[in-house]
Design brief:
The structure holds 2 protein chains of 2 kinds. Chain A is mainly beta. Chain A contains no helices and 11 strands. Chain A is globular, with a radius of gyration of 14 Å. The radius of gyration of chain B is 14 Å and the shape is globular. The chains are: A mainly beta, B mainly beta.
């Protein structure tokens, strides 16, 4: 079984400041890891994903995340927040290999203060 | 491509009424899912399907039924709605063909209120 923990249901940053959203996972087998973003009144869309290979993954809109196996973490970062980054962010995990169900975290709402 | 579409976008029901939510995808994906989203609880999987004619229970299936008669459509039914089913419902689809990694594509959601 796998699980995801997102630390902080709400995070506030100033425009131009570093964005750091935390995600820790548990999985009994090597995982695939995802970050999704949800803008108000919309569905989720993929930001980035880790499958195999390079542990630093770059996504859309300047976001990136690093897979750290020793820390079972997959934190999302962006060097400089923009007002348009205000949204809810979901971390998700699924075991690698074949079809497996995805488990989503409870989400972190990012507020960007001008 | 329209991607994943959901019908209706909004609905208000009275307790005990029934309704069907329709999800359609035009990406030829094998897998389809129904989630509900509630504040502070993230997304919870209701039912899913790994192919036409097959369905399976997810994390919170009670009170819901599903059908997938055609590959592109996945229907979610509420036979007797309860206030606890007030939520936002999302449909998603994904594919593992050609080494895919099961990225899910989401519809815009249906906001359901049960009075």
């Amino acid at each position: 079984a796998q699980s995801v923990t997102q630390l902080g249901s709400h995070v506030s940053v100033s425009e131009g400041a570093l964005v750091l959203l935390r995600c820790n996972y548990s999985s009994s087998v090597p995982p695939y890891l995802f970050w999704y973003v949800q803008y108000p009144n919309q569905g989720l869309q993929l930001l980035l994903k880790y499958t195999t290979g390079a542990t630093l993954v770059k996504g859309i809109n300047g976001f990136e995340a690093e897979f750290k196996k020793s820390e079972t973490s997959f934190h999302l970062t962006k060097p400089s927040a923009h007002m348009s980054d205000a949204a809810e962010y979901f971390c998700a995990v699924r075991p690698s290999g074949g079809y497996q169900k995805v488990t989503f975290g409870t989400g972190t709402k990012l507020q960007v203060i001008p | 491509n329209a991607g994943v579409t959901q019908t209706p976008k909004f609905r208000v029901l009275k307790t005990g009424q029934s309704m069907t939510l329709l999800c359609a995808q035009d990406m030829n994906h094998e897998y389809m899912y129904w989630y509900r989203q509630d504040p502070g609880m993230g997304l919870r999987l209701i039912h899913y399907s790994v192919g036409e004619g097959t369905t399976a229970k997810g994390e919170v299936p009670d009170g819901y039924n599903v059908s997938r008669l055609k590959k592109q459509n996945f229907l979610l039914g509420l036979e007797s709605a309860a206030p606890s089913q007030t939520s936002v419902y999302f449909c998603a689809s994904s594919s593992l063909i050609a080494g895919g990694t099961d990225t899910q594509y989401f519809g815009p959601g249906t906001r359901l209120t049960v009075l």
